[in-house]
Amino acid sequence: MPASERAIELLTAAAEAAHDKKAENVLAFDVSEQLAITDAFLVASASNDRQVRAIVDAIEEKLRVDFDAKPVRREGAREGRWVLLDYLEIVIHVQHDEERAFYSLERLWRDCPTITLPSAVPDGAVSGTSDSAAE
């Protein structure tokens, strides 16, 4: 069963908010077949700790204002190197470039279908998109 429509909506809004704050390499994965705890992952990166925190703040504000959604868990915000936001339907990873390169989440989840992000998020254009793609 592919990611839910609500998960795709949250993911798309979060990707747009991240892109607005100059996030790099914004990618989305449908992990619903592999994990029972969430439908999708959003992964984004930034070149410094301050920018990581700004991206996280923008995502949280966008999802709170537009969807009345608040993360059930928020980890790593103090350090600003790898922040995880858990919204149950989606999990968002905003990483410093160094952590992104070291942990390579996209390699870990490469067997999962990618979710096409809107054209407003150009880094989201990845081959092998999911049937549950959002436009």
Automatic annotation (TrEMBL):
It comes from the Bacteria. Its main location: cytoplasm. Signal peptide: none annotated. The keyword Cytoplasm applies. The keyword Thylakoid does not apply. Gene3D superfamilies: Beta Polymerase, domain 2. It is found in: Cytoplasm. SUPFAM superfamilies: Nucleotidyltransferase. Keywords: Cytoplasm, Repressor, Translation regulation. It holds the Pfam family RsfS. Interacts with ribosomal protein uL14 (rplN). Belongs to the Iojap/RsfS family. Functions as a ribosomal silencing factor. Interacts with ribosomal protein uL14 (rplN), blocking formation of intersubunit bridge B8. Prevents association of the 30S and 50S ribosomal subunits and the formation of functional ribosomes, thus repressing translation. This is Ribosomal silencing factor RsfS. The gene is rsfS.
